User: What shape does this take?
Amino acid sequence: MKLNLKQKKYIDNKLFCLSKSKFRSSFKLSKKLIDYIDKNGFDKIEEHAYDFIRKNISSAYPLNDGKQTPMKNHPVFIAQHACGCCCRGCLEKWHNIPKGRELKENEITYLVALIIEWIKREYNRKKEI
Ligand SMILES: [Zn+2]
Assistant: This one.
């Protein structure tokens, strides 16, 4: 996905705000999940991010809302928690996307871009250690 400068800045700023939250910044990628990224590549991870966002949080009233995103087993799940994209309550709180309506296509694109950027930064951070 290609982002313009304004979108990049917006995501950069959002990640900065998220990093100030003790809870949000407590999410990290395990060695197992870093290996998973190495095996699958970022394009595949991005496909999964679209899938999870569409299936689990994009409808007006998602199933099990608030509990639909696991805390482990996929880098996208971890990133969803880290980025406030795990349920409609968090989308409202962190991204001003109101509950009770379907997500728009540009919102889905934005959430996926945010998630992928978080994963890339976390991946690079882990690779430097
Ligand atoms: Zn949530």
